[in-house]
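Feature request, filed as a ticket because there's no other form

It would be nice if the structure record came with a short human-readable summary line next to the tokens. Right now we just get the raw output. Example of a typical job, pasted below so the devs can see what we mean:
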Amino acid sequence: MDIYKDGTFVTQHNREACMAGAVQNMLNIIGPKVDLTTARQLVISNTIIANTTKTDSLNGGYGPAGWAITMTQLSGIHYKLLVDNSLVQAMDDAATALRKTNKPVGLLAWKGAHSWVMTGFQSNYDPRDYPGGFAVLGAYIVDPFYPRLSSIWGQTLGPDTFRDMTAMAKNYLPWKRPEGHYPGRDGKWLLVVPY
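Raw output as currently delivered:
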């Protein structure tokens, strides 16, 4: 399954705006309108910041709960933040939500430092037909950092690139932020899902 649509990709407007870029990509995929402008991304950025509490982001700015609130406000579709105990559970939850709603999922990659959009997946069985009895083999990812090069994570890949579970395990890592301790999040996998 892959819901990505050609012509919807937009890169983040600066190195820090990955969450705003992710939201803009998600909204473009959901439609019906596609807006690739920096002006739209700046509005999204301000909305996320307004929806982010100090608990959600200790250093201010963008927070994953703010991402979920912003997606709900701007898309009209209910989104929520999930915190899972394992990569397998997070990928299962992402695939289940995507399959159920036909809407993109947000992933907090790179230990929570970066925002990815999951637009599809491959699995051994359909999550709708075999809930709890399927295995995700990999995901289709839209990375708003593309085409930039990360000094830590390397060259980013173009939109709608399939990453197998080995690649996911190297990038979609448990939350660990340098600015401090996040009770209930540290060491866990965070995702923003439609429901």
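Something like this underneath would help us a lot:
The longest helix spans residues 87-101.
The beta strands are 79-84, 105-109, 114-123, 136-142, 149-150, 154-155, 161-164, 189-194.
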